[in-house]
Structure formats: C-alpha cells, structure tokens
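In response to the reviewer comment on reproducibility (Comment 2.3), we provide here a single inverse folding case reported in full, input and output, so that an independent group could reproduce the run without further information from us. The structure tokens appear first.
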C-alpha cells in the first residue's frame, strides 16, 4: 500500500507540468498556422503579379529578367511555406511523443504493480500456510521506484535508492526469504550513467530510444531536482542535433538541385528563344536573298528581251533597205 501511495505521488508530480507543456506545443502550432496564412496570402499576390507579367509579355522585349525574378520570389515563398509546414509536423510529433511517453510509463508501472501485488498476495498466502504464528523478524520496507527486474523500469523520470534497506539486516530464515524477494534486486550490479557505476541515490532516465546508458545519476548530469517534460542525456541530444543537421543538409541539397534544375530550364528556354529569333532572322535574310535572285532573273529576262527586240529591229531595217534599193534599181 505504501509503494502504491508513493507511486501515485510520483506519477502525479511527473504529470503536473503536462497540461502547460501541451498548451505550449499547441500554441506554437497555432503560431505556425497564423504564419502559414500570411505566406499563403503572399503566394496569392505573387501569382497575381506573375499573371500580369505574362499578359504584358508580348509588349515588352526584355521580359526574361523580370520573369526570372518573379519565379524566384514565388519559389522562395513556397519554400518558406514548406518550411513552416515541416515545423508544424515536427511540433505535432513532439507533442505525440510526450503523450506516448506518459502513456507508456503508466502502462509499464501498472503492469509492474499488478505483478508485484499478485506475487505479494501469493507469498503472504504461502507464509500463512507454513507459519500461522506471527513472526518477530524485522519488517523490510519496499524500495521506492525500483523495478523487480534486473534493470530499473523507466518511470518517466527518476527513482531513488535512499529508502532501500540493507539486506544484511534481514535474517536468513523461512519468513525473511519471502520479504527479501519482495524488495527486488537490492544488490544490482549493472552499471549505469557516464561514470559506469551501479545505481545509487537519485537517478534520471534518458528519453532517448537508443540511449546506451539509459539511467544517470543526478550529480553526473548536473541536476538537483527532476526536470519538467522529456529529458535527454548530452549524448542523445548531440545525436538528435546531428540528425536534424543531416536532414537540413539533405533539404538544402534538394532545394539546390531544384534551383539548378529550374535555372537549367530557364537557360534552355532562353536558348530556344534565341535560336528561334536567329532562325527567324535567317529566314528573313533568305527571303531577301530569294527576292534579289528573282529580281536578277527578271532583269536578265528583260535584257534578253531587249536584245531580241534590237535584233528584230535591225533585221527589219535591213529588209527595208533592201526594198528601197530594189526600187531604186528599177
């Protein structure tokens, strides 16, 4: 009963800050929503400006630079919206992690308490059958928040060995054997923390899923009292920081690839545009050349016709002269 009372006090103390922590996360998500609404408005304005540029595109020759700047502005605004959405997802996941952590702790502790209670009832019934007379052996207090298994169960944050009894004071008889079993592994030799020593005093559990040390002594991590909310050891915090940096680097690389792809498309578009202009100019030059050729051809034909006419006129003149000469001779 004492252990159950202690557990309830510890559990209520651990969730005392939960409502304010959840409220803080929800407030941050709400702020991101407001920020996202502003970004969406900006996107709408950018889209309207882009449409105006498209309308006047035919009337302005040097439109490429203006269009490029408008596209970059839209892309930057879109990237900002994506970043805000990613932040919202991260906050929601952290909120879920906090709730899941408390639920998991409650489930584990309830399971442990039920198991301990059943074992205690079974041992008490065995003691009553074997020794109906009351025993004068010293009572053994149950250790506070220490697991009956080899490793201490993560009860969200901390446990203490201050109230743990010395097993040497327990007499080695049939009655005391059951009492020692109730205490748990008093001589737990497993090593914890950075210092790689056994559990003693006040300890705190790291909330990192793959934490190698799992439990830490308060003095080794610079704590004087239980922290509020989730707690990570320095190694796990550094690991999480590295993961976030890697994710950011990947996002930057993706954005860079997108920008490069976009620039390449714009370059290809400009190149195609220049090629089309060059082709048009070539076609125009070819048409002019063709016209000149046609003119030369016409001129040659005219020259030829004029020569033929001259020849005909000369022939006629000769004939006329002949006729005149004939008349004279007569």
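Designed residues, in position order:
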């Amino acid at each position: 009963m004492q252990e159950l009372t202690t557990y309830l006090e510890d559990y209520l103390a651990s969730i005392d800050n939960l409502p304010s922590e959840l409220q803080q996360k929800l407030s941050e998500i709400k702020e991101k929503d407001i920020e996202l609404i502003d970004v969406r408005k900006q996107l709408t304005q950018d889209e309207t400006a882009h449409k105006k540029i498209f309308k006047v595109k035919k009337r302005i020759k040097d439109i490429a630079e203006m269009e490029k700047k408008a596209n970059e502005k839209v892309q930057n605004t879109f990237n900002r919206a994506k970043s805000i959405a990613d932040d919202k997802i991260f906050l929601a996941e952290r909120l879920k992690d906090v709730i899941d952590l408390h639920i998991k702790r409650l489930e584990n502790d309830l399971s442990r308490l039920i198991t301990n209670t059943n074992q205690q009832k079974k041992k008490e019934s065995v003691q009553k059958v074997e020794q109906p007379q009351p025993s004068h052996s010293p009572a053994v207090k149950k250790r506070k928040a220490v697991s009956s298994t080899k490793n201490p169960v993560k009860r969200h944050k901390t446990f203490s060995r201050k109230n743990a009894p010395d097993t040497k004071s327990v007499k080695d008889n049939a009655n005391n054997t059951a009492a020692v079993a109730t205490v748990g592994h008093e001589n737990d030799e497993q090593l914890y923390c950075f210092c790689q020593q056994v559990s003693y005093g006040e300890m705190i559990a790291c909330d990192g899923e793959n934490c190698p040390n799992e439990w830490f002594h308060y003095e080794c991590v610079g704590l004087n009292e239980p922290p509020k909310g989730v707690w990570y050891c320095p190694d796990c915090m550094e690991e999480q920081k590295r993961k976030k940096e890697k994710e950011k680097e990947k996002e930057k690389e993706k954005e860079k690839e997108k920008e490069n792809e976009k620039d390449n498309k714009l370059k290809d578009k400009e190149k195609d545009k220049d090629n089309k202009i060059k082709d048009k100019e070539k076609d125009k030059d070819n048409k002019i050349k063709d016209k000149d050729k046609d003119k030369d051809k016409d001129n040659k034909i005219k020259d030829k016709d004029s020569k033929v006419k001259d020849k005909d006129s000369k022939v006629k003149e000769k004939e006329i002269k002949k006729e005149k000469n004939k008349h004279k001779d007569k």
